[in-house]
Amino acid sequence: MVSKGPLLRLLTAINRRRMKLLMGLAFIAYVASVWGNFVNMRSLQENGEQKVESKIEEAVAPLREKIKDLEKSFTQKYPPVKFLSEKDRKRILITGGAGFVGSHLTDKLMMDGHEVTVVDNFFTGRKRNVEHWIGHENFELINHDVVEPLYIEVDQIYHLASPASPPNYMYNPIKTLKTNTIGTLNMLGLAKRVGARLLLASTSEVYGDPEVHPQNEDYWGHVNPIGPRACYDEGKRVAETMCYAYMKQEGVEVRVARIFNTFGPRMHMNDGRVVSNFILQALQGEPLTVYGPGTQTRAFQYVSDLVNGLVALMNSNVSSPVNLGNPEEHTILEFAQLIKKLVGSGSEIQFLSEAQDDPQKRKPDIRKAKLLLGWEPVVPLEEGLNKAIHYFRKELEYQANNQYIPKPKPARMKKGRTRHN
Ligand SMILES: NC(=O)c1ccc[n+]([C@@H]2O[C@H](COP(=O)([O-])OP(=O)(O)OC[C@H]3O[C@@H](n4cnc5c(N)ncnc54)[C@H](O)[C@@H]3O)[C@@H](O)[C@H]2O)c1
């Protein structure tokens, strides 16, 4: 008889091995299934990620295009600017740079590739005049009154800050005096500190009601020191005196431009001078008002001619005063008729009684500018007038659309006399 012990042992041993094998297989199957799940999940995840990514891409693609367009419009927003090397690029301060002349000067200097800082208290200037430069890396706009000192680093200063048209400078004669005296002292002090050259925007009004015709730079003028215009005329005369005192005593490099009547786009709507008055009257179908018989003469230069003259003078070695104006003389009546024709207006010309103190003649002698700066006006009167008419037409449309247009307040003077300025 075979004992059951060894058989049982054998069977048990076989079962144990099978069990081990089975367990091993089960473990492998488990690992394989876990791995399979893992791989499945990964691929699901990858698929999912790909789907999400493609969805994001779909949503972002048009945004990307928009950003590109925006970037393009952003870089194209500014008028074209020349590239100037570090050596040729100047840091230029323009006081009154948001005004009529100052904003055109800003355009010229920016387009020439310089770094321009405009300082303005917006008394008669407007942000709108220079808004096309805001954000440009070469441009800065500072809201500042030149009656307060200013500390910045610059190479050249065009000092234009001062109201220029009679209703504006007569509105607050004391402020006009402070701007032209304290303001000019502050700018000369700055020029001295940083070694900058300063150009003063002086005026033909320093000749007053002239006794010589045409007026050359050697004429000392005929100014009433206590009349209603004295705040401006005498303010500019003493500003010139200050320039030469700083030049002689402190060695500051100065340039003095005696500017004659200038016109063009960005003039104030209520500038009060004959060109803007006639254009606005003609555009609105109102009578063109001529004071006296209209035989008084005036000479007007277009603003781009003036700007070229200012830049030429600044960069010249001429430190004595220079007249900048257009010597082409016309009677007031001729201006009225020409503007009426160019506007295509049916307005009548209305003759009113002659204004007191109205100069009969005003015409610059520009031989010095021609000889020393090689400068003379080149824009024909009709071409300039057409540009100004286009501008005023647009401004009237702008007003008609109920948009806000800041207007300087009317003169405070009780007995203001209307004149052909
Ligand atoms: N336009 C002309 O026909 C003419 C003629 C002769 C002289 N000028 C001179 O040219 C310069 C510019 O004249 P415009 O016709 O452009 O006049 P504008 O009134 O348009 O410009 C003068 C600018 O100076 C600013 N300003 C005034 N007071 C200031 C102050 N205290 N601080 C800072 N900014 C101040 C005004 O806000 C304005 O932007 C003036 O100095 C003016 O006397 C002009």
From TrEMBL:
Principal localisation: Golgi
Catalytic activity entry: UDP-alpha-D-glucuronate + H(+) = UDP-alpha-D-xylose + CO2
Cellular component annotations (GO), alphabetically ordered: Golgi cisterna membrane
Keyword Lyase: yes
A Pfam family the protein falls into: GDP_Man_Dehyd
Domain (UDP-glucuronate decarboxylase N-terminal): residue spans on this chain: 7-79
Membrane topology category: Single-pass type II membrane protein
Family that this chain belongs to: Belongs to the NAD(P)-dependent epimerase/dehydratase family. UDP-glucuronic acid decarboxylase subfamily.
Name of the molecule in the record: UDP-glucuronic acid decarboxylase 1
The species this protein was found in: Apteryx owenii (Little spotted kiwi)
Organism placement in taxonomy: Eukaryota, Metazoa, Chordata, Craniata, Vertebrata
